[in-house]
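Schema walkthrough. Field components (list of strings):
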Amino acid sequence: MGLCQRWRRLRLSGLQTCRLHTAAVPAPPQWLAERLGLFEELWTAQVKKLASVAQKEHRTIKISLPGGQRVDAVAWSTTPYQLAQQISSTLADTAVAAQVNGELYDLERPLETDSDLRFLTFSSAEGKAVFWHSSTHVLGAAAEQLLGAVLCRGPSTECGFYHDFFLGKERTVRGSELPALERICQELAAAAQPFRRLEASQDQLRQLFKDNPFKLRLIEEKVTGPTAIVYGCGMLVDLCRGPHLRHTGQIGGLKLLTNSSSLWRSSGAPEPLQRVSGISFPTMEELRAWEEGREEAELRDHRRIGKAQELFFFHELSPGSCFFLPRGTRVYNALVAFIRAEYTRRGFSEVKTPILFSTKLWEVSGHWEHYQEDMFALQPPDSDRLSSSLSDHAPSHPADTLALKPMNCPAHCLMFAHRPRSWRELPLRLADFGALHRAEASGSLGGLTRLRCFQQDDAHIFCAPDQLETEIQGCLDFLRSVYTVLGFSFRLALSTRPSSFLGEPCLWDQAEQVLQRALEEFGEPWELNPGDGAFYGPKIDVHLRDALGRPHQCGTIQLDFQLPLRFDLQYKGQAGAPEHPVVIHRAVLGSVERMLGVLAESCGGKWPLWLSPFQVVVIPVGTEQEEYAREAQRRLQAAGLVCDLDANSGLTLSRRVRRAQLAHYNFQFVVGQKEQSKRTVNIRTRDNCQLGEWDLTEAVQRLLELQNTRVPNAEQVF
Ligand SMILES: [Zn+2]
Ligand SMILES: [Zn+2]
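Field assembly_structure (string):
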């Protein structure tokens, strides 16, 4: 078949089916025609060669199938797909690739030797990776054809795929171009174009990709052997290790999601690239279900809730730091107050420490050596530098560089060390909500999940070795109390000594046994992560699940033998000799900001009363009751409750009640003529449950009780 004919056939099978696009798709450029021609030539030769090898060898091989069954096959001829068909037509239809002696294989790639054969479907993570990786080729082909893109790379990701390509230094992909690109992808998928695997020599590779400078660089860098694999699929030929789907028709539903810019970072000068991302599924129904799930998740996204409820915002003039508005601050403070109350109960002492330190501190703590890139460093003011060079009393070296603290531990060590300590003071539990700064890359910042400035419910326990077990039990109990109130379940894991650890092995052994005993005593299920501890001590990892069952890592309990040595912390032991304390780093909420985001999503903006920035709204029936409504509001506010007034008489009562419920006010206090004369309120909940008439004083009292006991369902138990 001549090239022109082939081009026509390809267009008929793919693009031509939708007449709307034919005008948008440029005629086949010469370079593409040449590449396709060469590919066909090489493909025909490979098919011939394989057939003759199969015929010449004519060797029977043994294949063991999933489930233990063993079958005979013909070397260089039988394919995993043929064997899948023998097992069941459903498997043949749903398999996306095979695993042959542990290596990933195309379903159409002939088996060569005795093999252990497994099939991958979309249901597994590896199967999804093959599926999405194949989908990105379809996207690449569409970008090449519609936009004249020069393709760079197209990997699968944890949730979908993207393709990076070059459109010239100035040209970008516009969001308005995605629908047309998506339609072409869908048509290419519907055309069920087979993926064909071809082994090509270095020379052939250079010939195939002579018009793509990026691929030429990749060939130069990555192809170390005499040959490498390329795949042909419709009009696309791409350098790729595979494996892929049998054909693009296995992609039943495909959606393009975002367009953004990216950068070519491999060898040579950096080049501006365009990135388009998408997701795909075996069926349209699965795509629809995913879209519905995503809409639900978007509704629950804490950034959306934060905006809708006026909790917080971000500003480009302080990237990665959050502005908490009055309502957000109310939630924030309620969380911190909860932890403070626990501190009082549990013998923790709250302290305040500086946020700016000389880098000498970070040299002692080891942060300057291991963590410097994640810290914000600042130059001291000019006057410091001047005085250090002019004044007789100033040190002879230049003034120190300063850095914002990324964690509190070194400051607490200074506090422990600032005067002699006795065993009678231990355990010393220092808690600190100080602001921490970490130099996160701007690209990684997102809502409250990752910030440059945040506060933790951070505490450090300085104790004697024989107090460790009780202290760890105390930490575990602290975690459980807080997570129960927040409605989270959790799993614990003990991470033990890694291969590169610091300190005495016998100390490690003892500490690990202590942690293990504390966990057993605690009574909740836990698992062992051998070798997963930090180099300075073993730890207990806490994996919590929110109300939606989503996992989060927030709390931590971490032993540290190194910090007391680095700071040479000592206390006078019972026998009179100096001893080193052990330090426990622990946090329950972790970052308060991040926890606020987790909670917003977990409750979907319907805050429990004790955290709620929308506790009560008072709604007067008519203008005559406004004065009494205001008085009720003042009474609630005086008691420390959040209370708004909706006196907008332009709207009917039922509209205002509905509006309050949609805004998730836990309670609505309606006051009419009767309530005014009897000093009562008529109470409804946000779920439109009518609680009837209550004496105002008693209602305030009841709300306070429910707030102070932090019940999760005040509306139901009022
Ligand atoms: Zn590929
Ligand atoms: Zn710490």
